[in-house]
Amino acid sequence: MTLTIRWRCATAALSLALASGTGLAAQVQEIPVTTTSAAARLDFEAGQAAADRGDAQRANALFKHAVTLDPSFTYAWLNVANSSLSAQEFNSALETARRNGASASEGERLLVDVALTFIDNDAEKRIVLSRKLVEQYPASPRAWLNLGFSLGSLNRNDEAREAMRKAEQLAPDMPLVQTSLGFQYLFGDPKDYAKAEQYMQAAVELAPGEDNYHVNVGDVHRGENKLELANADYARAVALDPNNGIALLKLAHINSFLGSYDEARRNYDAGIAAATEQNRANYANFKMFTYVHAGDIDGAIAGLNRLAADIDSMDMPEDQRVGARVLTYTNLAQITLHAGRYDEGERAIAGLAAALRASAASVNKDEFTRTQEATIAYWEGQLAARRGDYAAALRFAKKNKDLVDPDANPRKLENYHEVLGLVHLLQKDYGKAAAEYRQANLTVMYTKYHLALALDGAGQHAEARALFKEVGEWNFNTVDFALVRRDALSRANA
Fold this sequence. Notes:
The protein is mainly α and 494 residues long. Helix content is 76%, strand content 0%. It contains 26 helices and no strands. It has helices at 3-20, 38-53, 56-69, 74-82, 87-99, 106-120, 123-136, 141-152, 157-170, 175-187, 193-206, 211-223, 227-240, 245-257, 261-274, 277-293, 297-310, 318-338, 342-363, 366-386, 390-404, 414-426, 430-437, 445-457, 461-472, 479-492. Residues 1-26 have low confidence and may be disordered.
């Protein structure tokens, strides 16, 4: 990170503070930032500005530099965790933040405790702590945004929006407030693309030269199925910053949806080249999706297998290799099971299980280990169901349920219900399948697609077609979307 870049980030942070009224406007009183080092504070503010814009790579480097200047800087350690690239780094940074809590403000300690709930999957505690934070700092936009994110993680989206609008009342000129509301309306149900675009455009108007805000507008246009407009938004972001790897990747996504696969792969290659070594494996996964969109399952599986092998020689810490393996083997498992290539799926799940267990060992907390084992049981249940061994699938589903049962999270049984839904669907018991899928994670398009299949089989054709249309026009590039997009669109128009 050059001094010039750090100065530019710090200038942006100061501009953001002025715009939001932090420390200046009487109605805003932000969560205190506790450090003994002015230089560390400067890096922290620069990192926070980068994170607010969506530049996690730059933010992570700045926060790490801040803690070298002040090793007891709790808020900076928290943000190292929040911009981390692995479960191990997330947990390690949080534990360091927690140990330094005696010298931190009450707000900083509460934020650390909120983040720790993601390790032990205690969503109920997360809400309690987040509400306590806004009680302590009712004039803090970041406290209200934190509450909004916590509520949104439980799909309590109306409450999340109400909390975020409190932040907007306090700091209407803070771009992070606008983009947070924009993403809430873009991805939270019920979706409202008009409001999402309104908020994303407001951020652009506040900082028209910031490339990432144009990327966010492109995301809304994707949600609206306005792919050419989204392409123009991402191209504008690349023109503002030719090294914006995220914008390049999203250009590639659009070209994949439009069937321009060669152009998409060139975009992906440019995005991969612009990424840090730690992110290249993650970005390369998206390039493999072009083969899925093109109907070339062999090409996708071969490419992901090569990538899984290449990760071992990539220049990154082992904990980040583990994260890259988890992503790559998850995508391999999804593709192979969907394609009916169960022996290859079994090998992919074995690779995934090894990576998840390595991640659990690096964190070394019982709650997190249970979560990883529950995920493995979920995938083993999927494989057993696809192979027609329904008794084994039900055993794995129960294992998943038993592992997550201690968690204080109302969404903990979503994967359990998904496996049950698949078992009933494959046995053509469509009513029971639909009932189970309705209790699964319907923010995942693959799950929603299977609910639509169940409803169609049960004779509820109108609702099924509506869901197929929603799935087919989702336009956010995950492996599950790549697998079902073409069929969903065909069924929606049947």
